[in-house]
């Protein structure tokens, strides 16, 4: 009988846990872990993590005493994300991704400043920048921020990525990692076409990540591809061989419980022999390609709005706690 899909996947792809749930991370022993504002929002309201929230509030009150409540709440949100990251790093050997405030997605200077603050918070707790990936939305402005940060030795994970134009710009900025969102691409196509499903090999999100992976490997870009936001294990199996895949505990569980042969689908050597035309990327080309890609426009805007809403909700929760 073959090994589980999860065990086979780990032989060809780095498996990352996409969660703020420490229990799920401990169960599946991933190398790295990612979080996002929605995951932090959900975890922050669970009784199991009350001590994490309390720790962030206490530290913020000490450091931000006398400042307006709204500023304290924003600082507490940053501290909470770091507190979750610190707990996660105790459970994994690799890196954790911590997200910059999505409301800064179109402000290069503010994104850089926020990244510096996050790195400083980790450093104050004895964690070096080599274990942190700063998550930034893949806007033109966010990519420019990542370019600066990477030159400073701060590694970045470019998220909310839905198109080849974003991926090329990230690679040319020498970002450490990109996170193309497989499931959110599928969601858009299902709604746009009225279909109820796609075969896994024809899944639009799978095809998008495959195109990006092959482009990167063909032209020798060092930026790693980490497929994200999966809706089912079929999508994951179609991307076996990708540099990294970040997977929710639910789907990690399904992979662990399923025994079937798993075939490598993405291969760097094969990509190098493909016929692929290069695309010279500058701001005008980026914006033109983005304007022509309805899906990428819609999903990037929606993703920033959703993450901003989640961050505002956590801030409101923290402000109430600080006031009391």
Summary, kept brief:
The protein is 56% helix and 11% strand. It contains 15 helices and eight strands. The protein has an eight-stranded parallel beta barrel with strand order 1-2-3-4-5-6-7-8, surrounded by eight helices.
Key descriptive features of the protein:
8 strands, alpha/beta, 56% helix, 8-stranded parallel β-barrel, 324 residues
Provide structural commentary.
This protein is an alpha/beta fold. The chain contains 15 helices and 8 strands. It starts with a helix and ends with a helix. 46% of the residues are buried.
Assembly form of the protein: single chain
Taking strands numbered 1, 2, ... along the chain, how are they ordered across the largest sheet?
Answer: 1-2-3-4-5-6-7-8
Form type = globular
User: Based on helices, strands and strand pairing, what is the structural class?
Assistant: alpha/beta
List the helices and strands and how they pair.
Elements: H1 5-9, E1 14-18, H2 22-28, E2 32-34, H3 37-44, H4 50-63, H5 69-89, E3 96-99, H6 108-124, E4 132-137, H7 140-151, E5 156-161, H8 164-172, E6 177-180, H9 182-193, H10 204-219, E7 224-227, H11 233-238, E8 244-247, H12 249-257, H13 268-272, H14 283-292, H15 294-323
